[in-house]
């Protein structure tokens, strides 16, 4: 545990120096390829640094925050786009924008700029700290339920692992955005999820409800550029199809990176195939909507299309995602890690 904490400190010291270089030096270089070349060493460093963290929760979280989200934002920064452009007023805000997955609500922009004074008695979203505590409590209950996993049917375990993943992502995003909420008082942040269980289709689930900060990052870095290029080749009507597919493939590769950190074995590409399959299905959905729904030839009611979409995701995720983790004993590793953390705090107190 102590060596892990030392590695974590080294990681953030190196990350801070790398981002300082990007803020003070790379920002002064002309946008485009010259700035991209200057930032490339930082992107490479942030891609490999998290692999010095071996714990499941800390390690996977840092691969997501640094190797994925921060690197995508730096790629956009190289071309003067994204949340890092224009550069924030000070370095602390630059670090927050790079490493903290948050988005300021549109009606809070004027508050941030000082154009509208913040009134303390105005309604605000629930504190991210309270949200993190709430998710941590639910995760703790899940961990303790794993002590009786030998009595659970394997399908019940899969459902528990699905909720574990969902709660873990929510907890991670809440914790990562807490510094932004503290440093930007009076500013409301956009929610990280938008009721995924109420999705009416695969397109609605992935594009407007699930993990919105990741969706936004992928939209800016992959979807929009490819759609612009495709519209010149195949026309605007079908330009979204290759853009959507490329976005899902990219997401698959980034999830594969996270899985590699967790499993530490040669990739089997199952999680990548999960996202490739989802990309194909979303493209089919878009095609059918434009051919049938837009022309009023056929429309599936949301009460049917929504559950079908969620069932599709649950079944394919169980087939290509969770079984891979179970096959490599990740569930046992997670339970063991949780018990080690509990013991560490018991000894500390």
From TrEMBL:
Keywords, alphabetical: Acyltransferase, Lipid metabolism, Membrane, Transferase, Transmembrane, Transmembrane helix
Pfam family, one: MBOAT_2
Domain spans labelled Wax synthase: 190-276
Alphabetized GO MF terms: O-acyltransferase activity
One Gene Ontology CC term in the entry: membrane
Family: Belongs to the wax synthase family.
UniProt name for this protein: Wax synthase domain-containing protein
Organism of origin: Gossypium trilobum
């Amino acid at each position: 545990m102590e060596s892990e904490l030392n590695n974590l400190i080294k990681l953030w010291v190196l990350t801070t120096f790398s981002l300082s270089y990007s803020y003070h030096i790379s920002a002064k270089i002309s946008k485009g390829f010259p700035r991209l070349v200057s930032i490339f060493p930082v992107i490479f460093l942030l891609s490999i640094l998290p692999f010095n963290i071996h714990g499941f929760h800390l390690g996977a979280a840092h691969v997501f925050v640094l190797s994925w989200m921060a690197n995508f934002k730096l790629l956009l920064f190289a071309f003067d786009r994204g949340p890092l452009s224009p550069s924030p007023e000070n370095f602390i805000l630059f670090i927050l924008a790079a490493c903290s997955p948050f988005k300021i609500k549109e009606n809070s922009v004027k508050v941030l700029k000082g154009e509208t004074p913040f009134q303390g008695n105005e309604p605000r979203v629930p504190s991210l700290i309270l949200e993190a505590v709430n998710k941590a409590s639910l995760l703790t209950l899940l961990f303790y339920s794993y002590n009786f996993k030998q009595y659970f049917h394997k399908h019940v375990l899969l459902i528990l692992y699905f909720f574990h993943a969902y709660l873990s992502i929510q907890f991670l995003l809440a914790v990562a955005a807490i510094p932004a909420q503290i440093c930007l008082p009076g500013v409301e942040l956009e929610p990280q999820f938008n009721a995924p269980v109420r999705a009416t289709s695969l397109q609605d689930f992935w594009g407007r409800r699930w993990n919105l900060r990741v969706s936004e990052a992928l939209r800016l870095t992959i979807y929009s550029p490819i759609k612009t290029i495709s519209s010149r080749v195949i026309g605007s009507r079908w330009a979204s199809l290759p853009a959507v597919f490329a976005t899902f493939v990219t997401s698959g590769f980034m999830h594969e990176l996270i899985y590699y950190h967790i499993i530490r074995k040669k990739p089997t590409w199952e999680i990548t195939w999960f996202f490739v399959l989802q990309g194909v299905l979303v493209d089919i959905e878009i095609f059918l909507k434009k051919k049938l729904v837009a022309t009023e030839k056929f429309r599936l009611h949301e009460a049917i299309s929504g559950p079908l979409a969620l069932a599709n995701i649950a079944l394919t995720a169980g087939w290509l995602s969770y079984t891979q983790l179970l096959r490599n004993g990740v569930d046992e590793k997670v339970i063991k890690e949780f018990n080690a953390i509990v013991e560490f705090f018991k000894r500390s107190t």
